[in-house]
Amino acid sequence: MALTPTRIALLLLAACLTATATMTIGPLSFVGLMAPHIARMMGFRRTMPHIVISALVGGLLLVFADWCGRMVLFPFQIPAGLLSTFIGAPYFIYLLRKQSR
User: Fold this and answer.
1) φ, ψ for residue 3, nearest 5 deg
2) Within a 10 A sphere around the Cβ of 67, how many other Cβ atoms?
3) Cβ pair 5, 19 in contact under 8 A
């Protein structure tokens, strides 16, 4: 699959903006970036339900990341921000590839 220079530039720009948001706010910013996309993929298009479902999905993602971080290496913990980053980065790559087709 050949990418045009414009698409490569946009991919790099999206990666830089995501990295900047993560550096500024912290790794939990991925949840704030992922939740609205997941809510829209679930079929919520109108504003009010979309906001409510985005908040619920974001909360569930954080609870899931925290739970996994506590259970994976049991007496030790993995930070929830680190797990959300590991989930968020591939998810955004998937979204970018899906939208470019």
Assistant:
1) -105, 135
2) 12
3) no
Q: pTM to 2 decimals?
A: 0.67
The residue type found at 29 is: S
* Position 1 pLDDT exceeds 60: no
Which single residue is written with the structure tokens 């220079």?
Answer: 5
Residues 4-60 have pLDDT tens digits of 888 889 888 988 887 887 778 776 777 888 888 889 888 988 999 999 999 999 999
Burial of residue 14 (CB within 10 Å: 0-12, 13-18, 19+) is middle
Residue 7 to residue 29: CA distance in whole angstroms: 24
Q: Are 39 and 53 in contact (CB under 8 A)?
A: yes
| C-alpha to C-alpha distances, 6 to 38, 55, 100, nearest whole angstrom | 26, 34, 11
Cα 70 vs. chain centroid, distance in angstroms? 20
